[in-house]
Design brief:
It is a single chain. This protein is α/β, with parallel strands linked by helices. The protein has a five-stranded parallel beta sheet with strand order 2-3-1-4-5, with helices on both faces. It is 49% helix and 12% strand. It has one domain: 3-Layer(aba) Sandwich (Rossmann fold). The protein has eight helices and five strands; from the N terminus they run E-H-E-H-H-H-E-H-E-H-H-E-H.
C-alpha cells in the first residue's frame, strides 16, 4: 500500500497537473494555486520564456524530437516550492520530467474522454499539439492514456464537472 499523499505535500512541495490538451490543466492550476495560496507555473509558458518564442514556432523550428528533449530538460530542471505546476500534454514522454514532477509532490492526472478531447483541442497546430508522423489525434490520445495513468498519484475525470468540483476532488484526493 502506498503512503498517504498527505505525506508528500507540505510547504516544500508542489502539486503537478498532467493530462491531454483541453483537460483543464492551466485553468485548474490557477484555481488550485489560489485556493492553496501557492504560486502557479505553466511549463508551456516557461518553455516559451526560455526560448523567446511561442510553442508553435519552437516546434516548427526545432522539430518534434528536439522539442520533446527541450520540454524534458526544462521540466526536469524545475526547482520550485509551494507551486501548482500545469504541464504541457506531451510532458508524459519525458522520463526525466516525469521523475522530477513526482519528486516534487503529488501528480494529478486530469482525464477527459476522447470525444471531449476532440471537441476541446480545436486546431492542434495552434496549440503546438504533438502529433507524431502517421498518427491521428485519436491515436495520440490512446497512446498517452496509460502513460498518464502510470505517472499519476490521483486521477480526476474533468468531463462534465465544474472547475470548483474538480478542485474539491483534487484537494480531497491529495488530503490538503
Amino acid at each position: 500500500m502506498q503512503p498517504p499523499l498527505l505525506n508528500r505535500v507540505s510547504d516544500e512541495r508542489c502539486v503537478s497537473l498532467i493530462g491531454m490538451a483541453g483537460a483543464g490543466k492551466s485553468t485548474l492550476a490557477a484555481l488550485l494555486a489560489a485556493r492553496l495560496d501557492w504560486a502557479c507555473l505553466d511549463t508551456d509558458r516557461l518553455i516559451e520564456a526560455t526560448c523567446g518564442a511561442r510553442l508553435p514556432e519552437i516546434l516548427a523550428h526545432r522539430g518534434l524530437a528536439d522539442f520533446l528533449r527541450l520540454e524534458d530538460e526544462v521540466v526536469a530542471d524545475l526547482h520550485v516550492k509551494r507551486c501548482v505546476v500545469a504541464t504541457g500534454g506531451s510532458v508524459i514522454y519525458g522520463r526525466q520530467a516525469v521523475a522530477r514532477l513526482k519528486a516534487c509532490g503529488p501528480v494529478v492526472y486530469l482525464s477527459i474522454g476522447l470525444s471531449t478531447f476532440l471537441t476541446r483541442v480545436g486546431d492542434p497546430l495552434e496549440r503546438a499539439f504533438i502529433i507524431p508522423g502517421g498518427m491521428t489525434l485519436s491515436d495520440v490520445y490512446a497512446e498517452r492514456q496509460p502513460l498518464y495513468a502510470a505517472a499519476a498519484d490521483l486521477t480526476v475525470a474533468t468531463d462534465g464537472l465544474s472547475p470548483a468540483a474538480c478542485i474539491e476532488q483534487i484537494v480531497q484526493g491529495i488530503a490538503l
